[in-house]
UniProtKB/TrEMBL annotation:
UniProt keyword annotation of Transferase present: no
UniProt keyword Nuclease, yes or no: no
Annotated source species: Haloquadratum walsbyi J07HQW1
A GO term for molecular function: phosphorelay sensor kinase activity
SUPFAM superfamilies in the cross-refs: GAF domain-like, Homodimeric domain of signal transducing histidine kinase
Signal peptide, first to last residue: none
UniProt xrefs under InterPro entries: GAF, GAF-like_dom_sf, HATPase_C_sf, HisK_dim/P_sf
Coiled-coil region(s): 124-151
Protein name in UniProt: GAF domain-containing protein
A Pfam match: GAF_2
Record-annotated GAF domain positions: 4-123
Species lineage: Archaea, Methanobacteriati, Methanobacteriota, Stenosarchaea group, Halobacteria
UniProt keyword annotations, A-Z: Coiled coil
């Protein structure tokens, strides 16, 4: 409040800002002289008080003798005369004196100009804060989209490859039954896109990392991908730190990929390593293994 002291030549002044959460005027600043005269400034609530009244009215009030005002908060206040100015929706600024009728017309005009300047500064600070928040929100949205694009690119690669191979076989061998696998792959991609979109929208869920029982997730995936072309053997009691939804999706994708890449029935083994887990195709010549 040193600027107010210098600009207005008034050494008793204080600023209150409105707190919408508690619906009160909270003291934000007070001059050294003001602190010396009145001590710690009060919090103004919806109860009857001069400052709250001015704030609600959005006005300016000049009191030549506070002692004559029955709604003053502090009945023993040493302040005798006071100017209270509303700062729009932000709060109020008070200027006081220990002498009655101590403010002239010039003082009131200068106080009004200063209050308008403070309100303008608060407007600017509020806009800058909104811009910072908007930029942060845009940044977070961009990061989510980048993660989504990366996950989509990775997870859709396998079903796309399967669909391409099935179409190629159908064309070269004139075997239309191969197109059944294309329909399965397209359904798989549709499910992936739906799941990934949900994960992107539910950012909190995506970021939750917990200790997850690998065997439990693997058994759920086994039920989801139940196929006559595969048997799944689960041999692990490991607890791993992961997002449960994304882990389940990963295992389902790998199992489905192994199934679709083999024309014959395969045996899939899920086990643990020193620092993770693996999913292995143990019944094919390729012996493909993912960790």
């Amino acid at each position: 409040m040193s600027i107010a002291e210098t600009a207005l030549d008034q050494d008793i002044n204080a600023l209150w800002l409105y707190d919408p959460d508690d619906d009160v005027l909270q003291p934000a600043a007070i001059s050294d002289r003001g602190k010396e005269v009145v001590g710690d400034p009060p919090v103004y609530t919806g109860a009857e008080s001069l400052s709250w009244k001015v704030f609600q009215q959005g006005s300016i009030e000049i009191y030549d003798d506070i002692q004559s005002e029955s709604t003053r908060v502090n009945e023993d206040t040493p302040i005798r005369s006071e100017i209270i100015l509303a700062l729009g929706d932000y709060g109020v600024m008070n200027m006081g004196s220990t002498e009655p009728a101590d403010f002239e017309t010039r003082d009131v005009s200068m106080a009004q100009i200063f209050a308008n300047t403070v309100e303008t500064a608060l407007d600017r600070a509020n806009r800058e804060q909104q811009i910072r928040e908007q930029r942060e929100e845009i940044k977070q949205q961009k990061e989510r989209l980048e993660r989504f694009a990366g996950v989509v690119s990775q997870d859709l690669r396998y079903p796309l490859e399967i669909a391409e191979r099935r179409v190629e076989r159908a064309q070269t061998k004139s075997n239309i039954s191969q197109l059944d696998g294309v329909e399965t792959a397209l359904e798989w991609m549709d499910t992936l896109v739906t799941n990934l979109t949900t994960l992107t929208q539910e950012e909190t869920q995506t970021q939750n990392i917990d200790a997850v029982a690998l065997s439990k997730i693997a058994k759920e995936c086994q039920k989801q991908t139940q196929s006559s072309k595969a048997s799944v053997d689960i041999d692990t009691n490991a607890l791993i730190r992961a997002n449960q939804t994304r882990l389940k999706q990963l295992i389902e994708n790998l199992i489905q990929c192994i199934v679709e890449q083999n024309d014959e029935r395969v045996n899939i083994h899920i086990g643990e390593t020193d620092d993770g887990f693996y999913i292995a195709d143990t019944g094919s010549e390729s012996g493909s293994k993912s960790e």
